[in-house]
Model the fold of this input.
Amino acid sequence: MTVLSVIRQFCARTNISVPTSVHGTTDVQVLQLKGLLDEEGMDLAKRGGWEALIVEAVHVTLAAEDQGRMTDIAPNGFRNIILDSFWDRTMRLEVGVVSGREWQRVKGFSTTGPRFRVRVRGGRLIVNPIPPAGNTWAFEYVSKNWLLDPNGTLYKEASTHDNDELLLPEALVLMGLRWRWKREKGFDYAEDFATYERQVSQALGADGMKE
Done:
């Protein structure tokens, strides 16, 4: 389903004139729906680790504590690392992802390895102890990008084309768009919102391969 098809379906069900285009239109109602759709997608993407938004990153280590910016290491809209997915493939060892408290504890002691511990701080990946250069590290992360550009390679979190493809469950996006639109118009949206919340919880519980 695309941005245009979602908005067309919503309009048809809401007795609003069905648009032929979203981007480039001057229709204020369609522009409002486009803004609400982006808002819904961004919020829904944050609700959990949707399988469709999970991406693998592969990084070649530097001989330094600071391994670089996460936007370079995990360029597809990095949100957070999935715990227990971080491995040094060269040394065949798991890499520990630690909290700020654990990081400070590690830094308080002299550590030489072989197990590495990493933390994301200030948008950068830092590691202790310092690894050798050239090791292959890999991990999975959750992306904030819930849309796929028509070119099939660019992922993004706000729509720029009518044919941007949704990566999140279409039914949930439509439900979210409905209660947001009602709220914006000053209508009663409590029942729609409650139903939406139940459906989101159920969908997250069944999404992908749950343990």
